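Hi team,

Below is the intake form for Phenylalanine--tRNA ligase alpha subunit from Pediococcus claussenii. Please confirm the fields before the structure is written into the shared record.

FORM ID: S-0412
PROTEIN: Phenylalanine--tRNA ligase alpha subunit
ORGANISM: Pediococcus claussenii
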Amino acid sequence: MGLEDQLKKLEQNGLSEIKNSGDLSKLNDIRVNLLGKKGPLTEVLRGMRDLSKEDRPKVGEFANRVRDNLTATIEKRRTELEKERLNRKLAEESIDVTLPGTPVAQGQPHVIQQIIDQIEDLFLGMGYQVVQGPEVELDRYNFEMLNLPKDHPARDMQDTFYITKDILMRSQTSPVQARTMEKHDFSKGPLKMISPGVVYRRDTDDATHSHQFHQVEGLVIDKNITMGDLKGTLETLAQELFGDRFEVRLRPSYFPFTEPSVEADVTCFNCMGKGCSVCKYTGWIEVLGAGMVHPNVLKMAGVDSETYGGFAFGLGPDRFAMLRYGVDDIRNFYLNDVRFLSQFNKRG
Ligand code: 2U9
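The structure came back. Fields below:
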């Protein structure tokens, strides 16, 4: 068979192989087989050496046409196959947007944090700053500066986790107020702050005691602050947390850092003051402690107690949460059982 016939046969075979190739990798194999260095076309071209000078250009031209035709046909088939592959992919991967999605479990802030957030929002709205401080504290800020010197009997009121003689786990958030008051420049205006956070006491855990719980304390220092300001502030707080119909009643009490000191009761949410088992038939529920800041506390923080004075209060969000949701064991808040905690999902 002459070279031209060989080439024709090769072309025909090649074209039919290309036409029948079902996928891109097969097509590539065909290309390598037909046109590669070891392929039949190269082989035929090599045979051109034996042709006469006159025949060579003619056969050469013919061979080039065959190669170009095969190359162009392979390219055409490749485009077709790529299009087919894309169409198949689009059909397979089409998304039915009407199908229901996979539900994603949503978390929420811890129930105690939800109460703290609500208190923060209220006080931020009244121009207070929210200040946080260290949980590992110096005895000086936790006790001394709050009018509780080393020999003070009231230190027994709260057993404390000591780390060294001078360093302890804070037993209240008051040291944050003491630190802030010490730094505050009163010539620039009053100090209005709340300090939410975790505190620690050496209590044995039971239904109403936890060695770790939360406090939110508030402090206002300015000229001419009165007990009326304190009562109004506490009423605003009670109405924010419980509702408009709630009243506040102050009873005398004692704290080393305030004088006079008071305990604040709020109308019982269960019987609205009529008397029930929740409020032990008094119509009132004790919710926080407060008072006018003791002059010693002001002096120790370097504040002129003749010119400036103020009020402070402290409350326990754990107790608030127990009252609001009827939780009878404080330990539930610290066990991190999602079955318990997910009940307080604001998103419903
Ligand atoms: C400074 C001056 C005064 C903070 C106060 C209370 C009264 C109080 C307790 C209530 C329940 C804490 O959560 S609880 O255990 N607190 O009764 N706290 S006045 O007085 C301060 C704080 C800081 C510099």
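SUMMARY LINE: Residues 146, 174, 177-178, 181, 215, 217, 219, 255, 257-258, 288-291, 293, 297, 312-316 surround 2U9 (CB under 6 Å).

Thanks, M.
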